[in-house]
Amino acid sequence: MSTQSGHPAESGWDYIVVGAGSAGCVVASRLSENPAHSVLLIEAGPDARHYLSTRIPIGYARTFYDEEINWKFSTEPESGLNGRTSYWPRGKVLGGSGSINAMVFCRGQQRDYDEWEALGAEGWGWSDVLEYFRKIERVPFSDNPLRGTHGPITITTTEQGAHKLNQYFLDGCGELGFSMNPDYNAETCEGVGYYQTNISNGLRISSNTAYLDKAGKRKNLKILTNAQVLRLTFEDKCCTGVLYQQNSSLKYAGVNKEVILSAGAIGSPVILQRSGVGPAKHLRSLGIDIVKNLSQVGRNLQDHLGISYYYQSKIKTLNDQFNSVLGRMQAGLAYFLMRRGPISTSINHAGGFVRSSRANYSNIQLYFQALSYLDSPPGTRPMVKLDRFSGFSIGTSQCRPTSRGKVSIASDILSIPPIIEPNYLSTQHDLDEALESVRLIRKIASTVSMRSVIEREIRPGESLQNDDELLEDYRNRSDTVFHPSCTCRIGKEDSDSVVNPRLLVHGLDNVRIIDASVFPVLPSGNINATTIMVSEKGSDLLRADVR
Question: How far apart are CA 106 and CA 57, in angstroms?
């Protein structure tokens, strides 16, 4: 991949893409397919090729606290979490969070996107976005016409290498009446089964490897790494360029056509606010001149909140393998000789999407892991400390939480981190579903299949039984499952959104946002696939609007 190729037009670049994450890699790749376009892609972090941990699937355990390739954000103390802060790792490297995440590939529910359209995102209903999901996929295990077969991102299932405990979990879910679903990304996501991941031949397939590796060789694309954007510059409502810091120097890049923000649910609203686009009262209090008063920039923040219950197992789990020198050696040999074994996959093998008793759609996501652990304090390694006994976990998160938060800048100085306030568990809906989800974990654990392998519940422990105790434990132990989004949402009016359905920022001539921040509402499940879908559709909208 070249980081020096490309050339601007006489007065600047045709297009500047800010952020080379899951979305930005796609946008830069698609724009540069036309040799007439000069494209500058600016990434705050380094080239992912320098970090083997971004290619080895289980390597995300090492990237979790690596400040060289991770923004390592933290929220403000959250009242819903009993005053705890939540640690938010986000990718600061080519490929973005898609280079450091758990690689679960999930489209969400069809109804999620029909709701997008109902909320004002015209052209973003399920029938509109399906072709873009198919466009990005290469699915070798299915001939379902709803799945893609020739896309740049290979999708595989975890079934072949899954620990045998996963089948006990699936059998237990079957005892409760939950159906087996061999492909939750096809007709419906409802049911349980093995997860699908963007892993091929034991290697992570990110937007960086799937799109940018090839595009980076084009002469009309220049990729700047370790370059952090301070703000956009404007003449009236027209963006004229980008100020960025690289090697401790402030530099400028001019633009002829458009600037595309693909800096993510945190980065995109932060850059807009530093540029004078956002809630005017707050920006004026920081001494920032107003370019456009947009009250919703940074608002509507949504995230999935999850919790796990941990069990001591009657049979050996991955704890036993990774706590053993011989076991680790065997896992290493299996990976480096054959690209197999626990290092070659995500730790989430089985799970699914199910309904609680009061829901008419899948409102709870399940995760099963054939290991158990304690989280390490932020900033320490490893990210988890495996229990010394045979253990496993059953986890859950709410598919469609109704709590809403915000992202705000505390200063226009680059080194000062943003203020992140998720506002977790601030609605009765989310509190009710929190209790329903942990009650469901207990029901699964009490099935005949699961009782045959459970020695005892370790955390939180069977002494906690009533609603108040379980909810208090939820407040004390639940945490993000790393899906922040919706902070620059799509809509028709600038009073309740940031971009229009063509992803152009309301009131600005030539600034577009293409990333997870434009989601009107959080889709069910893991969001990386949806982010890439948005970037493919957004790229088509952008190219159709070429001036």
Answer: 17
Peptide bond into 35 cis (omega under 30): no
Span 501-511, mean pLDDT? Answer: 98
Catalytic site residue 37?
no
What one-character-per-residue DSSP string does 317-384 give?
-HHHHHTSHHHHHHHHHHHHHHS-SGGGS-S--EEEEE--TT-SS--EEEEEES--EEEPPTT-SSSE
pLDDT tens-digit profile of 230-281? 999 999 999 999 999 999 999 999 999 999 999 999 999 999 999 999 999 9
Q: How far is CA 252 from CA 5, 260, 275, 322, in A?
A: 18, 16, 14, 49
The pair of structure tokens assigned to 489 is: 């949402």
In 3-state terms, what secondary structure has residue 209?
helix
Instruction: Say which residue the tokens 């859950």 belong to.
Output: 396
Cα 213 off chain centre by: 21
SS3 category, 296: coil
SS3 state of residue 276:
coil
Q: Which of 265, 258, 256, 432 is nearest to 356 (CA)?
A: 432
Residue-wise pLDDT tens digits, 23-71: 999 999 999 999 999 999 999 999 998 899 999 999 988 899 999 999 9
Domains of the chain are: 13-50+207-302+485-519+534-544 (3.50.50.60), 57-89+99-107+157-205+303-405+417-480 (3.30.560.10)
Closest CA to 354 of 424, 263, 439: 439
Q: Which residue has the tokens 């890699």?
A: 25
Q: Which residue in the list 37, 163, 349, 483 is annotated as catalytic?
A: 483
The SS3 call for residue 394 is strand
If we measure between CA atoms, which residue out of 524, 514, 529, 516 comes closest to residue 487?
516
pTM (predicted TM-score)? 0.96
